[in-house]
Amino acid sequence: MSETVNIKYGDTSLDLPVITGTENEKAIDISKLRASTNGLVTIDVGYKNTGSTTSAITFLDGEKGILRYRGYPIEQLAKDADFLEVAYLLINGELPSQNDFDTFKSDISLHTLVHEDLKHFFTAYPLNAHPMGMLCSLICSLSAYYPDSLDPNRSDAEKNLTVVRLLAKMPTLISWIQKKSTGHPIVYPDNKLGYVANFLRMFFGQRTDEYFTDDVLVDAMDTLLILHGDHEQNCSTSTVRIVGSAHAPLYASIAAGISALWGPRHGGANQAVIEMLQAIHNDGGNIDKFIDRAKDKSDPFRLMGFGHRVYKNFDPRAKIIKVKADEVLDKLGIDDPLLEIAKKLEEIALKDEYFVKRNLYPNVDFYSGIIYKAMGFPTDMFTVLFALGRLPGWIAQHREMMEAGQPIGRPRQIYTGSNERDYVAINKR
Ligand code: ACO
User: Fold this and answer.
1) Class assignment of domain 4-51?
2) In Å, what is the CA distance from 85 to each residue of 43, 97, 324?
């Protein structure tokens, strides 16, 4: 028998259905609430209790520290899969056959070039422009070059082409952003290379020299991209879905996701973590002082890279990244004092009553910045790398939302402003 929750409101008694997910997660379906109660809505600022959709892409259990894409544990994907394979899985729902994977990869290789006119954008930006601002504009601008993408009812083949273009061009555009900041000429894609190796070559390589990719670094970068691939209905993904629900083009929806990701409470935390660790280091390494500041409610300082809306246990991604950070630093022979500070900070915070009581654990961003820094990425590029990893997740979520024919996202509100009043002329106020 299907479960229901009974609510009573005035004279109305209403049985609301309980829906159950494949992992036995339960939700009260309130879609008939307003109509049946003459206007009653729910309010849940920050959506701490509200599911915005059903979804078959990512499962996470924040209490147990579980994360799976399409059913596959993140630990297995991070160890054995390759980023484009995971991208295919997220977007299409199943792991590809060898044949399908070869076609997917070769389609992406065919579209790595970006229209040369887009280079003119860069003449308008100051040298110190934040890469996330540029990435957002560039991705949205792709819609100008592919006007067919504006039609939400275009064929499946045309929709796939937009997906391929996004996956193929984002690494190229990110490398252009980097070259803008260094003043060096752009390096064109080398389609013989794999996705990550090609990206690292365009980003770090020079036209004057051959660029040799290091397998340990390619593997670490690939793992980081996989770990960032999707994370169900977080702030940026919900943004992509809600913008897409208005039938804005996919390029614009992804650009909106990039904007949301930029914030230091979301993807921008990886940049903020390194800045925090650097500040602790510059301050003489007094970790206790910063722990005290994080606990002080009159101080806006928070321990960046700590805490998560849904993980109330270890973020499984942070565990994998911590091991990778050691591997990369060993390989590069780097002894980074910031890694030592991060480890001590984690050790102290995990024993501190304030953090224990609130279930605050290191999240995905706590160690990722250390790897990016060791690889030579500038700090303000870290969130851009997060966006590159999250791209397949955003695409998958957008596709799922469109295929489900989701209505336009439009929350209700409870108005708390003035009641009706008459306009007063300016000379009488
Ligand atoms: N440092 C100190 N205190 C914290 C921290 C932190 N990093 N995070 C949460 N808290 C405290 C809050 O002050 C609050 O305390 P209170 O109950 O005494 O008022 C309690 O823990 C709960 O915190 P909320 O802000 O209510 O939790 P919420 O789920 O809204 O926020 C968030 C989650 C935004 C991630 C928060 O933990 C945070 O700001 N962390 C630092 C930024 C960060 O690392 N963001 C990346 C998240 S991962 C990602 O998006 C990729």
Assistant:
1) mainly beta
2) 40, 10, 20
